[in-house]
Design a protein that fits this description.
Blueprint lengths: L1 H15 L31 E7 L11 H6 L10 H12 L7 E3 L2 H9 L3 H12 L3 E3 L14 H19 L7 E4 L7 H9 L4 E4 L4 H10 L3 E5 L10 E6 L32 H17 L5 E6 L8 H17 L7 E5 L2 H10 L6 E2 L7 E3 L2 E2 L8 H24 L5 E2 L2 E2 L3 H10 L11 H30 L17 H5 L2 E8 L5 E9 L4 E4 L8 E5 L2 H7 L7 E9 L3 E9 L16 E3 L3 E5 L6 E6 L4 E13 L24 E2 L5 E6 L3 E9 L2 E8 L5 E7 L10 E9 L6 E5 L5 E5 L19 E3 L2 E5 L4 E6 L3 E4 L5 E9 L24 E10 L4 H13 L3 E6 L9 E3 L9 E10 L2 E8 L13 E4 L7 E9 L35 E4 L4 E10 L1
Parallel strand pairs: 1-8, 1-9, 2-3, 4-5, 5-7, 6-10
Antiparallel strand pairs: 6-7, 11-12, 13-14, 15-20, 15-39, 16-19, 17-20, 18-19, 20-40, 21-22, 22-23, 23-24, 24-25, 24-30, 26-27, 27-28, 28-29, 29-38, 30-37, 31-32, 31-34, 33-36, 34-35, 35-38, 36-37, 41-42, 42-46, 43-45, 44-46
Length: 988
């Protein structure tokens, strides 16, 4: 060990002299393979070219788990086996070089590839190099767009794209993003795809009214301007709506799971049908061409889990192509060909068209008048939270793997890794995973994968912190602090707690530790006493945890940790104090700290007002819990509320209780108003000393359904803010979009569901505002949100339903929870009240802090004096506008770094400016000796990136002409920009 450190120091001396210029980590390699656009089949000018795209749509878990789908197990649930699909397609592709196939989900391809012989691998490599097998999209899965956070989407894309590049080099790089199944499309996804270097994007589902209008106007294909901050064309993405969702045209499905007639082409035999089929196909093609702009149209020849036996598909398509094209000798102008999305895209690009621009998003999605896919914004709220929390642990795990060096993977506490969690998180991004639209046993499988990821990361984190803190005392992680369960803190008389901060700026949080004593001494890493209080564990918390813990009390105090570092607190039980004061059984008139004053209605105990004491702004603000009765279908439509669909029976929700039981607790650390609305709804309204936001901790469940009524539980905030039916929601946790009740920016909406048709996804925040005030709600997971009344914001928290909604999942969404009597969910909303022009300064850091939680670890007993109690691994905190998005080990001596400007342009007077960071001055223990910039998905060097240009009828300035980087090491970020670097680093 000592020797190697010396070597590093030497290397450092040598490189120090040459660091005037950022050394590229890799020399770009130019490949001249036949893949990519060069491999596209010839088309015929002045004919209608019909691009047949053979494809399969393989869900990374839905009715079966990802592994059951891979092998084809549990056939009684659904017949589907992805291994056979890849086996069969590879065999069929070899029979004819004209045949094409695309593959999408790298999670499956990776499983299959590992099992192939060298011979098969070389055949597949050749197919890829010749463009006959093309990867499309290429992420680990096809992510959900409504409930995912950008950080996890970027990670899952990176994982899949890296495997493809490592395995196939440049020919494995997908040119096209392909989201044929997700239930609505987020603008931030389009922005990310553009920044990942994709040339185009195709999808299948959009609102039926929107689709109708686009067909009429020939606007099925467009340029999506996906950012209000990035300079065009940085976030412009060519976007196409597929004609039949992702299915073949009716009558032309030749999968073994379909029952359409094959091409029967022997005139001697009965049922000869070539003329009929060709006529029908030609008329379908002509009709389709009517709603598109060019001489090229696309047909998706495949569907869910198809091509398990690829032979019938290819055999019949071969014939269809032959017979349709034979008509050309008699003057037909239809030209049929095997193709891929990128070859189709290339033809569109060559077609010299001007394309319409789109700048809003594709939410919400309805496929009929009463069929709004807005329920899944909230479905499975506990899985949604677990997924979000797992992202936080993964980022911490990644960082500590880098900071702790090799001994974090194989160290004092055994072998740990971040890969297990990375894969589990990637699978969880699938559009039937975090979306909540899978069967219960599949949801359990996603959670189990994450839990295994937690185990592996916790070993890594323990190893890393042992190195960094120089303490070999084992660490305990308490995952159930939210329900006051942690055996170590409950029983210990003396322990320490390390707080690791994954943010690159100093941060503070409040912690509640379950304890059984009634007085403790808490000291920080400098030995200074920290103000702490002991309060009794609330009745609802005791009810939720049942027999899982026995703490009487909670020890509450505030902790701080330096940027990208940890701080350690020591906690000692003191003798002789009596039981802590029970909460007063009455409603307070108000509670306040330096920054906020919160008032309550003395007769109901409900929230009644909020004042920002710094700005002297005051609003009326009431809040309560309600539930919509889920529709079982009615005369107008049989549509029910289910895992996907939200359809309330009535626009007026039931109030849970107008007069909750209220108790109050006030001390020098925290003030709480505890509200019990019913046995299954409670809340703590909480104001910490020194905090600028109000916390609403809600607990909902088990939702009772013995009355035969499915329930969709919301909380609604009603204020006197004149929001005029406008409200705002974030897109995948990044840019914010304006929403307006009963309105869509791109078409004249005929509103048919006054509640469900106004719901939008909220991934991290939503707000309403008028000229004076903005009320922002930051949440801890993705949820559905709406504003039905002026000044009001409602958030759907939990759903329990009794019917399936006919979209295939085949189960009512009625989560049993751990005890079988219905899932209980607890979560937090943070409220800020600010002037609109400073709101972002508050909600941007607040939301990042909610996403990247501190990692708490506990050690029993006293620590050795040699233990390092506080360290920061940044050389200095990053500027407030800059967020450290990714710091993860890439290979032995390189790490992947993503820096993000976290403000939109014009959003903040102080922060919406370009900001410069020096890559060599980021870390205190790592020397950066080389840096190469990459695409957002880290599968291409930035300097090699070139995307197809599209004409939108306006002049477009080149990408990032200004402001430019001051020097190779100093990089400038503009509002909302993310820059990705591969860094060569050495431990100091
Ligand atoms: C072309 O037209 C001729 C004369 O009508 C006919 O015999 C032949 O079958 C046609 N070819 C095709 C491919 O339809
Ligand atoms: C892609 O993979 C090749 C090896 O197949 C490697 O040389 C190259 O550096 C990789 N490119 C990127 C951008 O990682
Ligand atoms: Zn799907």
């Amino acid at each position: 060990m000592a020797e190697s450190r010396l070597l590093c120091a030497l290397a450092l001396l040598i490189t120090a002299a040459t660091t005037a210029r950022a050394l590229p980590v890799h020399t770009p390699r130019h490949t001249a393979d036949q893949c990519g656009y060069q491999s596209c089949p010839a088309t015929k000018p002045s004919m209608l070219n019909v691009h047949l795209v053979p494809h399969t749509h393989d869900d990374v878990g839905w009715l079966k788990t990802v592994d059951q789908y891979y092998y084809g197990g549990r056939d009684y649930i659904q017949h589907a086996g992805v291994q056979y699909i890849l086996d069969s397609v590879v065999a069929e592709l070899q029979k004819d070089p004209a045949r094409r196939f695309i593959y999408v989900e790298t999670a499956f391809f990776y499983r299959w590839w590992r099992q192939q012989s060298a011979g098969t691998r070389s055949i597949v490599t050749q197919l890829v190099q010749e463009g006959r097998l093309e990867f499309v999209n290429g992420g680990w899965c096809m992510s959900d767009e409504a409930s995912t956070h950008y950080s996890s989407v970027i990670d899952q894309m990176t994982l899949g794209l890296r495997f493809l590049n490592d395995t196939f080099g440049a020919c494995g790089r997908p040119r096209v993003a392909w989201h044929i199944d997700p239930f609505g499309h987020a603008r931030e996804h389009a922005s990310m795809f553009a920044q990942m270097g994709y040339d185009g994007f195709f999808f299948g589902r959009l609102d039926y009214q929107d689709k109708g209008r686009r067909m009429k106007m020939k606007e099925m294909e467009m340029v999506w301007r996906a950012s209000g901050s990035l300079k065009p064309p940085a976030a412009d993405l060519f976007t196409g709506v597929l004609p039949n969702g992702y299915n073949p045209p009716p009558g032309f499905c030749w999968d073994q799971s379909c029952s359409d007639e094959p091409v029967q082409d022997d005139p001697e035999l009965e049922d000869y049908n070539v003329d009929d089929l060709v006529n029908k196909f030609i008329s379908i093609s002509k009709a389709q061409a009517e709603v598109y702009r060019t001489d090229h149209i696309i047909m998706t020849m495949g569907s869910d889990f198809q091509y398990e036996n690829a032979a019938p598909w290819y055999k019949n398509m071969d014939k269809l192509i032959r017979y349709v094209n034979a008509r050309q000798e008699n003057g037909s102008t239809i030209n049929l060909l095997y193709s891929t999305p990128s070859c189709y895209l290339q033809e569109l690009n060559l077609a010299q068209q001007t394309w319409p621009l789109k700048s809003d998003d594709f939410f919400p999605y309805a496929d009929d008048a009463h069929d709004f896919w807005t329920g899944y914004f909230t479905s499975r709220p506990a899985l949604k939270r677990y997924e979000r929390l797992s992202n936080s642990l993964l980022q911490t795990c990644n960082q500590l793997e880098v900071l702790g060096g090799p001994r974090s993977r194989d160290g004092l506490f055994g072998k740990g890794d971040s890969d297990t969690m990375r894969r589990a998180m990637a699978v969880a991004q699938h559009h039937d995973a975090v979306s909540g639209t899978e069967k219960q046993h599949v949801a359990d499988d996603y959670a189990k994968r994450l839990a295994i990821g937690w185990d592996h990361c916790q070993v890594l984190v323990s190893n890393s912190l042992a190195v960094l803190s120089q303490s070999d005392v084992p660490r305990v992680f308490c995952e159930n602090l939210n329900i006051s369960v942690c055996p170590l803190t409950e029983g210990s008389k003396m322990f320490s707690m390390s707080v690791y901060n994954p943010l690159a700026r100093p941060a503070n949080w409040s912690v509640h530790l379950p304890v059984n004593g009634s007085s403790y001494r808490v000291t920080d890493s400098g030995g200074t006493a920290v103000n702490s209080q002991v309060i009794p564990v609330s009745k609802p918390t005791q009810h939720v945890r049942r027999g899982r813990g026995y703490a009487q009390n909670e020890l509450v105090f505030q902790v701080q940790a330096p940027p990208l570092g940890f701080s350690t607190y020591s906690i000692t039980l003191l003798k002789g104090a009596g039981a802590p004061a029970e909460p007063r059984r009455s409603a307070p008139v108000s509670m306040q700290n330096k920054y906020l004053k919160v008032t309550f209605d003395p007769t109901t105990g409900l929230l009644s007002g909020l004042t920002n004491l710094e700005t002297q702004q005051s609003i009326h603000l009431s809040q309560n819990f309600y539930w919509y009765n889920a529709s079982d279908g009615n005369d107008e439509s049989t549509q029910t509320s289910g895992a996907y669909i939200f359809r309330p029976n009535s626009s007026t929700p039931y109030t849970v209780n107008t007069h909750p039981d209220v108790s109050t607790l006030q001390n020098s650390v925290v003030q709480e108003v505890r509200q019990q609305f019913s046995p299954w709804v409670s809340q703590v309204v909480r104001l910490y000393e020194g905090s600028r936001e109000l916390e609403l901790e809600w607990t909902v469940g088990p939702i009772p359904v013995d009355d035969g009524l499915g329930k969709e539980v919301i909380t609604r905030l009603d204020s006197n803010i004149s929001s005029a039916e406008y409200f705002y929601t974030d897109s995948n946790g990044r840019e914010v979009l304006q929403r307006r009740k009963d309105f869509r920016p791109t078409w004249d909406l005929k509103q048919t569901e006054p509640i469900a048709g106004n719901y939008y996804p909220m991934n991290s925040r939503a707000f309403i505002k008028d000229k004076e005030s903005q009320l922002t709600v930051v949440t801890d997971r993705s949820q559905g949100v709406s504003s039905i009344y002026n000044g009001s914001l409602e958030i759907m928290l939990h759903r329990r339903l009794l019917r399936d909604d006919y979209r295939g999942v085949g189960e009512p969404l009625s989560e049993p929870g751990q005890f079988g009597d219905g899932l209980i969910v607890r979560g937090r909303l943070l409220l800020t009240l600010t002037p609109p022009d400073t709101a972002a300064n508050a909600h941007r850091p607040l939301a990042q802090g909610m996403v990247l939680q501190p990692l708490l670890s506990f050690q029993e007993g006293a620590l050795k004096p040699s233990t390092r109690l506080e360290v920061s691994y940044t050389a200095a905190a990053l500027p407030p506008a800059v967020h450290l998005l990714t710091l993860s080990q890439w290979d032995q001596d390189s790490v992947l770094l993503r820096l993000e400007h976290q403000y939109e342009s014009g959003e903040s007077r102080t922060h919406s400016q370009p900001v410069t960071v020096n890559l060599q001055k980021l870390f205190s223990t790592l020397t950066v000796v080389g840096a190469s910039e990459m695409s957002l998905g880290a599968n291409q060097w930035k300097e090699n990136m070139s995307r197809l240009r599209w004409n939108t009828g306006e002049s477009v300035k080149p990408l990032r002409a200004e402001p430019g980087d001051p020097s190779p090491w100093e990089i400038t970020l503009s509002p909302m920009e993310i820059r990705t670097f591969l860094l060569n680093v050495q431990q100091r």
